[in-house]
Design a protein that fits this description.
Keywords: Hydrolase. Residues 6-118 form the HotDog ACOT-type domain. Belongs to the acyl coenzyme A hydrolase family. One of its GO terms (molecular function) is long-chain fatty acyl-CoA hydrolase activity. This protein is an alpha+beta fold. The protein has a single domain (2-130), classed as Hotdog Thioesterase (Thiol Ester Dehydrase, Chain A). It is built from three helices and seven strands; from the N terminus they run E-E-H-E-E-E-E-E-H-H. It has helices at 29-48, 132-161, 164-170, and strands at residues 2-4, 10-15, 51-58, 71-81, 85-95, 102-115, 126-128. The longest helix has 30 residues, at 132-161. The model has no long low-confidence stretch (mean pLDDT 94). It binds guanosine-5'-diphosphate (GDP). Guanosine-5'-diphosphate (GDP) binds next to strand 4 and strand 5.
Length: 179
């Protein structure tokens, strides 16, 4: 079974309230993360028709701070489908309602997995690609999956070959192994 990207697109607009600010008066990053997680869940559930869990999150860069009173819009769509996994891409923009100025705050890519009632993975519909943009996003997802695999392999090599002396010379750390 296959579904178009458009069938599961989700948009969410939220007005930023003072209760969501951190100590410096900007919107708390954790609050934005929870909105990202909600929309990723909604989009993946819509595509799969199943309950979905977050498996991993790729790149959440907070490019620009979000201010109180701004209208934040999150747009999510399916970029890639595996057997039971989906990559949901999300673009976050904040609009200053008075000036109409819109800024790009964040783009994130969530890997979501579809589950049945017992918590077992279930197959999801494939995605039907209908535009160059959608094809580009599918390609980028494949690249990102490959890069993540490489990163994992690379991380274990670093662990095996880098000694404590090398680490403490290069980084701001004191290594004091007592256990
Ligand atoms: P891109 O991934 O290079 O296209 O970077 P963007 O920052 O433009 O968008 C990030 C992700 O948000 C995309 O990969 C899409 O999955 C999603 N997205 C972007 N624009 C839209 C939109 O207009 N509607 C919906 N539903 N999702 C969007």
């Amino acid at each position: 079974m296959f579904k178009t990207v458009a069938e599961s697109e989700v948009t969410l607009s939220v007005l930023m309230l003072p209760s969501h600010t951190n100590f410096s008066g900007k919107i708390h990053g954790g609050y934005v993360l929870s909105l990202l997680d909600q929309i990723a869940f909604a989009c993946a559930s819509k595509h799969s028709g199943a309950y979905c869990v977050t498996a991993s999150v790729d790149t959440v860069d907070f490019l620009k701070p979000i201010e109180v009173g701004e209208l934040v819009t999150l747009k999510a769509s399916i970029n890639f489908t595996g057997n039971s996994s989906m990559i949901v891409g999300i673009r976050v923009e904040a609009e200053n309602i008075q000036t109409g100025n819109v800024k790009h705050c964040n783009s994130s890519y969530f890997t979501m997995v579809a589950k049945d009632d017992k918590g077992n993975n279930v197959d999801v519909p494939g995605v039907i690609i209908r535009s160059d943009k959608e094809l580009q996003r599918f390609h980028k997802s494949i690249k990102r999956i490959e890069l993540r695999k490489e990163r994992k392999a690379h991380a274990s090599t670093v662990h095996l070959t880098t000694g404590p002396d090398d680490i403490s010379k290069k980084y701001k750390v004191k290594i004091n192994l007592t256990d």
